[in-house]
Fold these 2 entries.
Entry 1:
Amino acid sequence: SKLIQYKMFKKIEIWILYLTLLFSILFTIGFGALVRHEMSGGQGLKNIGLGWVSETALFFAEIPTNLKRILISDLILEDRFSSIDGFDGSPNSKESYLLLSRYDHDLKEEVVELVDLRSFEILHTWNPDVKTINNLVEQTDEFKHLGTGIIHPKLLQDGGLLFKDDTPLRKIDYCSNLVFQNTKDRFHHSIETDIDSNVWIPSRIYPQSLPIKKVGRNIKEEDGYVDDSIVKLSADGEILFEKSVSQIFIDNGLEYLLFGHGATYEKDPIHLNDIQPVDFDGDYWKKGDVFLSPRAQSMVLLYRPSTNKIIWKGVGSFFRQHDVNILDNTRISIFNNNFKSFASGHQVDGNNEVIIYDFATDEYSSYLKDSLVKNDVRTITQGRGHILLNGDLYIEETDYGRTLYFNSDGSLRWTHVNRGSDGNIYRVGWSRILYSPGDIKIVENFLRKRGVCNE
């Protein structure tokens, strides 16, 4: 043992220590240069047959990021509601349903549950094998990284369920079997249908339609400019219309908003998170128009695809907003995240709000503001806010896995927290409340016609 201790603590010559430090510094610089070279395209080494060198360096450099992605795949959210597990409160008195999209900790998968809000009873559950569906897609180019969630599911008149998560658009039947998926685009954020059963979803044009590259760097296509687009699809998933939102800005004299701000290149100046189709003519819009929510601009637009014209834009009363809804002939609602960037970082400045804009009076107002403050609603990103026909208010506080329902007088009727059996809070995926006569008809038709699924 003394011999071992001697060898372990034997003095090292100072020149060996210095030489080791020198080689370590040179290795670090060289390794960083190889990683940078590969992230810039790696063309130099590839031209002489040594592309594998920089590729290997990038592989090792990305190990911590990839390991982190694996370890947090079961996204656990901050627990602000330790006393709530599932539904808590009084069920609704009128017929209404919740299409609850959530991560199930026990299944280790995403599920969608059709919940009767008069009893909180789960009437049906969809549990598609998203990973298997992803494996049907060639995961290259824009499909290199596919999500595994079920975001903003939409129940259709024929009983099918639409969903996506930075993936192709998928439709499944009542037994969660795949009906189709559109692999021409990678879709994200909201799913809405118009009166003609067409589907409107944000996507990204790939390759990008605008010739924009960061100066001095050969950016990989998937890391380049985020060319958000609005897409209209038929009921069977065929693309009928697609338009770059950046090009819409340029065509309507708003190019300065894309490339005229800040000292650095902005790759995602739009971040489209909602498309709300207009189904009727009015004094301020026409059937076929769409409301757009470009989050990065803290702006809501009324756009007319038939003429490629922006009819109206709203700014100033909301920040990093989501979820635009048409309330009546003159009013829309907007979920105001109130998300701002300060020196201390990104945060909600106070609480979320549901903002109403009235075109007839050109005025903004905050709906049931005191109730959202009292219940400390403050999702930083994402979020849903829907004012029902009777004045009740539905909220999804996405970042915290919480859903809330307020009576029209502002009192909290019920809340739901997606707590797993391990006690942790898990993500929800833009759940949808079903309450209108059209929604009720679709649900009742689905419940009447659904079959029996094999386990």
Note: Residues 14-39 form the longest helix (26 residues).
Entry 2:
Amino acid sequence: MTRMVVSQISINGRFLGRPISGVERYGRELLRAWDALLVSQPSKVSVRVLLPRGIEPDLSLSAISFETIGRLGGHAWEQSELLFAARRDVLVGLANSGPLLHPHHLVVIHDAAVFRYPENYGFQYRLLHRCISRGLARRARLGTVSRFSSEELAETLGVAREDVLIVPNGSDHLGQVQPDETTIDRLGLRGSPFLLAVGSASRNKNLGLVMSAWRKLGATTARLVVAGPVNDRVFSQAFDLQGLEGVLFPGRVTDAELAALYRNAAAFVFPSRYEGFGIPPLEAIAHGCPVLASAIPPLCEVLGDGAHFFGPDDPDSLAALMSQALANPREMPLAARGRLDLFTWLASAAIMHGATLHMAGI
């Protein structure tokens, strides 16, 4: 990729029109921090967000502007109208996709899940995003959220690991949500010890291990709360729930409801087999909730000695940690809160801005 001197950085804002999940939250928080950085340290290069028609951003930014361009939407907008509008700029993508032909493009691909766990995606989605990722690897500078993910992208996309820019998730927004304590009473959890897990029934989330470990605990007055887009009927199709007592499936919860669950749980269980970064454990720590996490590379990288680890295929180890957590609720490793200080959005925004200035020839 050649360097050229440009006076503008454009950001692909298509993700701002999608429901907020981990990728979209990453983009939003990085935009806020990038804007704050530019307010405190004005840049020679202006920064703007380009949006498809119909998206009204709900972010209030001061130094970064918004511009609506074109008439299309989705991937068609990215590959044509965004490409043309940003053709003389450095273009930044924060959410796994962007125009394949742009010559000065930095795009964050959060993980290699579409290659590692293809069964979690529909055929068309899988085919499209594999093609986009491979095309971007040939033309763009890649970024990602962890050292582990940089190694994953190097292996699956054939790029040099040292060429992948690491721009981590931040954690400083995680404890800011006001908990909705009414959800604790609504679920009948007030005064009752409980463990919390979140996720779905997809295989890489590994919630079957939690069920196996819970069964090994035997009779207990405690509860296990599994929050997320599953219910007991759907979940039972994937896992054997016969005779499993004390498990609650509240379904999707709001950020405020989840904050209340974190604030009251004895511990948070995160058994995932695959993550690019793994923000929920840091979210739990921000709300004072101890973390029991699977000992996979990205979680060990992010959590360090701030969590209790178990093997992703070891229900006995997890059952023992669950038992200890219920006997000593809210007992968190001393190093846990220190992990939050290692991941800030302002630091990540500085990495991103520095990389784009370099690409701009500044």
Note: The chain is about 40% helix and 15% strand.
